[in-house]
Amino acid sequence: MKLAVTAPDRLTVRTVPVPDPGDLIARLPHPSALAWIRHGEGIVGWGEAARLTLPGGDDRFTAATRLLTDLFGAADVDDPVAVPGSGPVAFGAFGFDPKSPDSTLIIPRRILGRRDGTAWLTTIGDDTDPLTLANPPRPPENLRWSGGALPEHDWKQAVATAVDRIRQGHLGKVVLARDLTARSTTPIDARVLLRRLAARFPGCYTFSCAGMVGATPELLIRRTGGDIESLVLAGTTARGATPADDQARAGHLFTSAKDREEHRYAAEMVRDALAPLCAHLTVPDQPELLTLPNVIHLASPITGHLAADRSVLDVVAALHPTPAVCGTPTDIALDLIRELEGMDRGRYAGPVGWVDARGDGEWGIALRCAEINGTRARLFAGCGIVADSDPAAELAEAHTKFRPMQYALQG
């Protein structure tokens, strides 16, 4: 594996406690924003002290861990705050497919964080005052929308083909995604999208890294010391128009054989992937309901304690891709995705998050997101397909999942 690395020989890192900075997103000085925010807490970063670009390959997580261990291990670090996210941090977004060359890790020059009442600023190198707003955010203008890789009819046909393969016994589940493109007459500023998403979906993990911006409800893994947490989401319905409709939809979702089967595949895979790494692991017997502003999910929170000292990226490597974003069996589902989707997902549905020098970190799955490139935004939405899936219903679900990013772009 040949890695592209832009980094000094030695990082000089200084972390200091600071007064509460208020809105973290408002502190970002320019559009090349790095962020991981939930309920107003988390970390934001800007500038680049180092960038790692990884080609495709099954060992990309191992290569990233090795390279970051070398960079962080050689660094001159002064970190009296010593909480997860203080000191040097790498923000990352990995390609969904092992064949994808789109995995990127960025160590910013400035990191501003807040966690459980503690706030800090990390400086890497000798840049000038980082808290000056260099470029005020500007919303996208005159958006024009266009279809993605497959027209709706063709995508429904792809779903029907997947259902047929599942009913023939080739696999149990596959996740099929589709895309949508928006173009603005002005460059799209990630900070505008972050602010809108964080305000509307505070319970999600609002993220930005190397052009991938979104608000994911799905926590792939959090590692704090030896403790780990994961939140499995699979099985979805749109919110109702009234409280009674909402309650009816939630009840139908919870008792739906199709959605419970889809969820079971995902939860069992996460359990099976984490069990060999853990001294103990707690998995609920049945899912609970997670209600978001636009959808309701079946959710299973999983907790455990690692049996050995492993970086959060080691755990990410064991988990990705989950049935929630790929299917099962993994290899067969991945081949079917390549055959039917008609597009390269890039970093959509890949791991996105951060890791610090202690190996702590939080990683989600890049869902409810868009890839931003200048004046262009490419949106993604995916649906879990099982034997009872209906193509028209899956298309409607995809439309629902596009809405968070459509809102973020349009306001």
Describe the overall structure.
It is a single chain. With 411 residues, the protein is α+β, with helices and mostly antiparallel strands. It has a single domain (4-127, 142-410), classed as 4-Layer Sandwich (Anthranilate synthase). 27% of the residues lie in helices and 35% in strands. The chain has 8 helices and 24 strands. It has helices at 60-74, 152-167, 190-200, 243-255, 257-274, 312-319, 330-340, 391-410; strands at residues 4-6, 12-17, 34-38, 41-46, 50-54, 76-78, 89-93, 103-107, 110-115, 118-124, 144-147, 173-183, 205-209, 212-216, 219-224, 227-238, 278-282, 288-291, 295-306, 327-328, 351-356, 361-365, 369-373, 376-385. Strands 2, 3, 4, 6, 9, 10, 11, 12, 13, 14, 20, 23 and 24 form a 13-stranded mixed beta sheet that branches. Strands 1, 5, 7, 8, 15, 16, 17, 18, 19, 21 and 22 form an 11-stranded antiparallel beta sheet that branches. Helix 1 (60-74) packs antiparallel against helix 6 (312-319), helix 2 crosses helix 8 (391-410) and helix 3 packs across helix 8. The termini are far apart. The model has no long low-confidence stretch (mean pLDDT 93).
Tell the overall outline: globular
- Which CATH C-level class is it? Alpha Beta
Q: Unreliable runs, pLDDT <50, ≥5 residues?
A: none
Residue share in helix: 25-40%
Q: Give the oligomer, counting copies of the same chain as homo and different chains as hetero.
A: single chain
Task: Count up the domains.
Answer: 1
Report the CATH architecture. 4-Layer Sandwich
The radius of gyration over CA amounts to 21 Å
Tell me about the largest β-sheet.
Answer: 13 strands, mixed
Q: Structural class, judged by helices and strands?
A: alpha+beta
Distance between the termini: 42 Å
CATH topology: Anthranilate synthase
